[in-house]
Design a protein that fits this description.
704 residues, alpha/beta, six-stranded antiparallel sheet, 22 helices
């Protein structure tokens, strides 16, 4: 959008320009026109201001401030990000001067705010004097105007109502707690050590914060936070075990495991079952047999499925009128990914007296939809204490370079002080680079930095593409064996001993699965030279060429399948396929059953046994039964998609333009904590530091 478009007398031209620069989604145009039809006398400047407001709300904010200075600050960050995004993802070099500046929007912002605050907008906005949701069954206006001591804000009505529901429900479900004594912590630690198998000849010793959460969980509902490997699900396992052991009536209670995605729900259940396997056999007998059996047979689901959406009613079956039974225990994982409306729907369906434990990492990326609820409910203004933060990671301990960097990134986010971060002094010359301070021998993992730029002059698009191709060519070498392994897999071989007595098929499946998880490229962007679409295309081309060259050397010719898939290709599910129990984020490998390309995944088999063949934990789906738009290549995935996954080695491409909306603290924290052995960050010093020191905050307005 340039100054000419900014000054246009056509609101459609203004909206279309914002859609083109990805400042709005196409649906917004219809919503805005509906608003302008309901109130037909809105001035052109105010129509443009409401368009800018819609753009900010699309970013996950649930409200915008009707203060020119505050709004301008938010819009400046948004607009500069949109410009950076356009330049970054363009196939051609673009001059930044071709775009309008954030300052050019000043009159639209000031005139629009003045108009809304002084004129009658009651046709589309309802003033709310208190934080109470809409009267049930009332015809709500699209917006709520909330005037408070801390300023006036414009909300979508649905978001204002959700905020009020969360505030009300949280006050009922979460009470002020108290920390246990040191003796209670020591007794709890010893009790669990006595319950569990020793690990590497040593007793299983939980951390002090874990013991605190387990003890408090016996009498309190809790929010349990912590980074990767801090043992959140371990804490929940022993909270549940002790509750059932100390309250025999709870053996008849319903226990619900849920998460915002099916993948996260499955992973939570698997983690709990894994924890149960560490408990000594003698602890699972006698009076404890029912406890073990109940926990071992728990099922998990998405929150959406837990609430049971009714298409006929157009609402959830479980709601404020029809709540879950009081004799219920809820464990909700990956809470940072839950948007404000889903959080509200969940909490209002849980009755007073039920037990609830919410788990998550507030430093990870927030929900795709509106809100950042986990972070907001941890900012308790009332002084109530209903959360425990687990701060010691079993994955990233004091000998972890990745953990050290993650802690420093979190410190910036917590303090909001950019001076807290001192850039690491690592060389950036290649994969074998080491810390300049020669401390590498004591670290168990690596953080590596690589800059594609060799001087101060920015790369042209052609130069950047050539360097990326060179990098991908080297990176793809390890995956050259994927096609070779994949063609040896026989999806028809089923059964345990009878069909695979020598376990060769099992070994082949395990080998290719293990190889597939060794490394991944994580991208902040979807489009552009550093986006997943471009990088996946280049990786596929390189792997296929390496395989073709190998077969040619052996005197064979590779015939590519007309389906477009090739053996060993990594694919990711991008849309839930409920009937097959495949969820957004599930990753698999292409193998062929004769001439039929199939997706091989490692997970429990689905209910529809006629649509899959299984051996052990592996399932195979003909790719023809899955919608094309629900599958994508997955050698490179977005950092958003990577949440909850783990890989030995991660290569992370950061955007090149400072001010890019995806060059943030949460992006880099989420990306590096997916790695277990090494992470290579492709960025220069300036963009790396900009990412760490840019903490993206959403304005949700929740107050507890």
């Amino acid at each position: 959008m340039n100054n000419k478009t900014l000054a246009t007398q056509s609101i459609d031209e203004f909206i279309d320009a914002l859609i083109e620069i990805r400042g709005l989604v196409p649906l917004d145009k219809h919503l805005l026109h509906l608003l302008f039809e309901i109130k037909s006398d809105i001035s052109l400047q105010t129509q443009k201001f409401l368009t800018l407001s819609m753009s900010l709300l699309d970013d996950g904010n649930t409200r915008v401030p009707l203060d020119a200075e505050q709004f301008t600050e938010k819009w400046t960050r948004k607009w500069n990000g949109l410009v950076a995004l356009s330049i970054s993802t363009s196939e051609e070099d673009i001059d930044e001067s071709a775009f309008a500046t954030a300052n050019d929007f000043a009159s639209i912002i000031s005139d629009g705010i003045q108009d809304i605050l002084t004129k009658d907008f009651s046709a589309i906005m309802e003033s709310r004097e208190t934080d109470t949701e809409s009267v049930e069954d009332a015809m709500s206006k699209p917006f709520v105007l909330a005037k408070r001591n801390n300023g006036t804000h414009l909300y979508f009505t649905k978001h204002f109502d959700a905020k009020c529901v969360i505030e009300k429900a949280a006050k009922i479900l979460f009470k002020d707690g108290s920390k246990p004594s040191q003796k209670e912590i020591d007794d709890c630690t010893q009790k669990i050590a006595d319950m569990c198998e020793p690990k590497d000849g040593k007793k299983f010793i939980i951390k002090e914060r874990q013991a605190e959460a387990i003890i408090r969980g016996q009498t309190e509902n809790l929010v349990i936070t912590g980074g990767p490997g801090t043992g959140k699900t371990t804490v929940v396992l022993y909270i549940l075990w002790n509750l059932l052991a100390n309250h025999s009536e709870m053996l008849d209670w319903n226990i619900y495991l849920a998460a915002p995605s099916g993948k996260a729900a499955d992973r939570m259940r698997e983690s709990l079952i894994g924890g149960l396997s560490n408990i000594l056999d003698e602890q699972k007998t006698g009076d404890n047999e029912r406890i073990f059996r109940k926990l071992n047979e728990l099922e998990s689901s998405t929150i959406h499925r837990l609430l049971r959406f009714s298409r006929s009613k157009g609402c959830f079956t479980f709601n404020r009128k029809e709540q879950f039974p009081k004799n219920s225990i809820f464990v909700i994982d990956e809470a940072s990914m839950i948007d404000i409306e889903m959080f509200a729907a969940l909490l209002e369906a849980i009755p007073e007296g039920a037990r609830i434990f919410i788990l998550g990492d507030s430093f990870q990326l927030p929900s795709v939809d509106s809100g950042a609820v986990l972070g907001e409910i941890l900012k308790v203004q009332s002084g109530k204490d209903f959360s425990v933060m687990l701060n010691e990671s079993n994955r990233f301990d004091d000998s972890s370079n990745i953990g050290k960097l993650a802690a420093e990134i979190k410190k910036v986010a917590e303090s909001k002080d950019n001076n807290q971060f001192v850039p690491h002094k690592f060389t950036i010359t290649g994969e074998e680079s080491a810390p300049e301070n020669d401390e590498s021998p004591k670290f168990k993992d690596k953080v590596l930095y690589k800059s594609l730029e060799t001087g101060d002059k920015p790369l042209t698009k052609k130069e950047e593409e050539k360097l990326i191709e060179s990098f991908i060519s080297e990176w793809s070498q390890d995956f050259a064996k994927l096609p070779e392994f994949a063609v040896q897999i026989n999806p028809q071989r089923t059964g345990i001993e009878a069909d695979d007595p020598d376990k060769i098929e099992t070994k082949r499946r395990n080998d290719i699965w293990k190889l597939s998880l060794t490394k991944r490229i994580l991208c902040a962007e979807r489009r552009g030279l550093r986006g997943v679409e471009n990088i996946n295309k280049k990786v596929c081309s390189k792997i296929k060429s390496l395989w073709s060259a190998k077969k040619k050397k052996e005197g064979e010719t590779v015939q590519w399948d007309d389906s477009g898939y090739f053996p060993g290709q990594l694919l990711i599910i991008t849309k839930n396929q409920e009937m097959f129990k495949l969820y957004n984020g599930d990753t698999g490998i292409v193998v062929f059953d004769g001439n039929t390309p199939c997706l091989m995944l490692k997970k429990a088999p689905p209910q529809r046994k006629d649509l899959q063949k299984t051996r052990d934990d592996y399932v195979f789906y003909p790719l023809s039964i899955l919608p094309k738009d629900a599958i994508a290549t997955a050698f490179a995935i977005t950092i958003h998609k990577s949440q909850g996954s783990e890989y030995n080695h991660v290569t992370m491409f950061l955007p090149t333009k400072i001010g890019h909306p995806l060059l943030t603290n949460q992006i880099i924290y989420t990306g590096i904590t997916r790695a277990m052995d090494s992470v290579t960050i492709i960025a220069n010093n300036d963009t790396f530091e900009a990412a760490v020191t840019t903490v993206s905050e959403r304005d949700t307005g929740i107050s507890l």
